[in-house]
Amino acid sequence: MTEVDGHLVGIFTDDEGKRGSAICFFQLEKIRLTFWYNIDRCRGGTDTIGLPHIGRDSKCINKSHLPLSEDTCQLGVGGTIEVTQFASIQFKERLLTAIDARIVLKKTLVIAGTNGGEIIQEIQSKTAAGAFFEVMPLM
């Protein structure tokens, strides 16, 4: 994963990690808001802590009367509300294993590596209709 232009850029594979990958752009502000929404729900006593992978999935206790700043990790909450995003581009028969992104000439340049040693270069352009990817061959 990497950060570019207020977005977290990540690669994801199928459930088995054997074939097919996707590149997704997550708005960092949306991640922050979702994180705090989960904390706020748990502080109000709604839902569970949501961290079963580390043995912490008990019911949330109402602690809304206690002050909480944005610089704290005191609650240790995972939550059940997730950040979701549609894939910006999908590769059906390539397994992506590395990614980086930069802004170049007002466009987002994404470089991805595959498990087979390929390097894929994509340019994300923004138009009035939204963003699109164009796969560019390396020169």
From TrEMBL:
- Quote the InterPro entries the UniProt record gives: Semap_dom, Semap_dom_sf, WD40/YVTN_repeat-like_dom_sf
The Sema domain is annotated at 7-74
Return the Pfam families for the record.
Sema
Q: Which SUPFAM superfamilies match?
A: Sema domain (SSF101912)
Looking up Gene3D superfamilies in the UniProt record yields: YVTN repeat-like/Quinoprotein amine dehydrogenase
Taxonomically, the superkingdom here is Eukaryota
Q: Under which name does UniProt file this protein?
A: Sema domain-containing protein
